[in-house]
Specification:
single chain, 15 helices, 66% helix
Length: 259
């Protein structure tokens, strides 16, 4: 788009005003384009902007910055940069979520010790970033503990934390449908119950039916609509799998049908 506006590498030797404006634009796509233009056409003047962009809240901007920081400074390590910043960061620094996302993008398992303390932070954005980093940095064989942490986070009173936990559990395929169903019943917020039901849509055939029937007994307009829609899909697709319910599942289904 910059080329379309007549802003090309031959415009002048400095940084065009429109590029400077785009670097600070509230729309991430414009920041991406401005940063890329600067890196490609004025690399000798790009270092400050690249370093600032390492803590951009938008992942694509950070990715561009991480790549170009190492190109512009051969001895630079994005992972070490985030480690140092996290160590020195004040508890309520505005860049903290971006630092956690950044270390999750370029760090390794050893960085988990830097991430886990932030799971109990009082800012929703920080906890959400820490949960995402936890999932990304944990090796597959230890994913069970991550699933447990995310599952219990569904009980958090903050809607933003519950939203992130539910999205991450959905990606994991709802590892503990029994516990998520319990939490759905324990939750006092209908929004939390709806999030739990969304996670349970990834559960197995019979656990999914138990979740739907449980949701229908809890009431609430939003939850009931979602449960009814899931029940319709369950009826249409239940014969795709011939798995039989366990004795416990069968008993629970029978109890819920009688309610």
């Amino acid at each position: 788009r910059l080329t379309e506006w007549g802003i090309d590498a031959a415009t002048n030797e400095g940084i065009p005003d429109v590029v400077t404006v785009m670097l600070g634009d509230p729309f991430p796509r414009n920041r991406c384009e401005g940063l890329l233009w600067l890196c490609l056409h004025r690399p000798e003047q790009a270092e400050d902007a690249v370093m600032d962009a390492l803590t951009d809240p938008y992942a694509t901007v950070r990715a561009i910055a991480q790549e170009w920081a190492e190109k512009l400074k051969p001895d630079f390590s994005a992972a070490d940069y985030y480690r140092e910043k996290l160590t020195a960061c004040a508890p309520h620094d505005a860049s903290l979520p971006a630092l956690l996302y950044g270390i999750s993008e370029v760090g390794n398992t050893a960085d988990l010790e830097r991430v886990t303390p932030y799971l109990t932070h009082d800012r929703t954005t920080v906890v959400s970033a820490a949960m995402t980093a936890l999932l990304r940095l944990t090796p597959h064989e230890d994913m069970g503990s991550v699933a447990d942490t995310l599952t219990e986070a569904l009980l958090d009173p903050r809607a933003g934390v519950v939203k992130t936990a539910a999205l991450l559990l959905y990606k994991l395929g709802c590892p503990d449908g029994v516990r998520v169903t319990e939490i759905m019943g324990e939750a006092t917020s209908e929004l939390t119950r709806v999030r739990c039901l969304s996670v349970l849509s990834r559960a197995g055939k019979w656990r999914r039916l138990i979740a739907i029937l449980t949701a229908l007994t809890l009431g609430g307009d939003h939850l009931t609509r979602k449960a009814n829609a899931m029940l319709e899909r369950w009826i249409l697709t239940c014969n795709y799998s011939f798995a039989k319910p366990t004795a416990v599942e069968a008993a629970e289904i029978g109890r819920l049908i009688k309610l």
